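Task card 7
Instruction: Convert sequence to structure tokens.
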Amino acid sequence: MVGHTDSQHDTRCKACCRVIGASLGSMVTSDGCTFDSLRFAPWSTLAPSVNKPAPIEQLCEKLAASLGDATFVRLVLSAPVEAGDDPQKVLGRCVTLKGVPHLSLTFRHATRDVTKNLPVDESAAWLRSQLEHAFRSALLCTTKRDWQFRFNESGAARLISHRPSTRILPSREHDQQREGILDLRAQDWLHGLGVTNDAGHVRVSMADKYRQINRYLEILSHLARDCGWSGSPENVLTLADMGCGKGYLTFGAWHLFRRVWQQPVRIMGVETRADLVATTNRLAKQIKADGLEFVSGTIESAKLPRVDALIALHACDTATDDAIRRGIELRARLILVAPCCHKQLRPQLGKPEPLAAVLRHGVMEERMAEWVTDSLRALFLEWAGYRTKVFEFVASEHTPKNLMIAAVRKGESYADRSARERINGLKNFFGIQHHALDSLLERSGG
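Output:
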């Protein structure tokens, strides 16, 4: 190799500095060359220039398009670049202010929420700035497609398309708390349960719980109409809420039927913890909630009358199966469950081809156990004569345990042999020897 003199070396290094230094800032090379200054850039600016602009620009264009053609559902920014007092998450929804659509943004800090309303024509530029400087991840949901944006560990940006999580447009009302099921009449029990403060405003720490109650009541109202229960004052309905905890959703169900629909109802909250039973009964008496009561007991052993609906949200492991079995045995018209942990089937779960290569990963095996467990629950309900729906209860940023199974009794129990065959087929495929609802397979007829 032909060497070079010190002066040649200096000349070449200075030229290199001029070309590279402008974009990389200050660094000292192995042979002693020093660029002028070192400025650590945000995460996004460390991404390769080939990959960075396209995904960000694509997402900004899709945001603007969805706001323009009224297909926008929601926007979530997460994985902040900086910690501290900066927002940890941003939630966006479309609202109408004085007849003009805006992007309403909720900046979630550790101890407070800050809301800002942005004109639609400024939304793309705002999103571009956030992804270049403040956040590493974004989720844009529309009624056509969902779009997930993120920077990977090397700093490269990616935009991934998914099928839409919903095709239903949310309300564009600016202050949704004034409308809907949770109206001013709900303030007594919401305040009594600590969801709202003395002024009737939702506490920051309870915002997710408030949204969960709202969503639950929306679902329950649709299912109740499907059962023909809305506005039927001649019939007294009986609902059992198993494992009701502090009673947020139990009070909500009572409010929907008794106060909103003026429907005579008996609602029983079943809870094992005596202190919670005493507290919720005291509040029910305080607000004169006729038809609402809380009793001590477990899902499996509590004494229940014949019920029209049996509800069990976030019952742990096979307690969900206990609730399903009790609902079927009581011939409940509606059974509504939101499963929690899924422990029973995972040790039994086989690794059949072609899934063996996938299920060797622990996280995939865990998720498959959840899917198989809840799929079997839906199939057992169908075998018992119920029409079932499996869907997302609340968005995953509020709780990861967000799956709900709704079942409405429509046909004859244990008469559809094909439903039984589907259960056995799924169990055989995964090598499952026992499921908590297997006793239902032994039944037949009416």
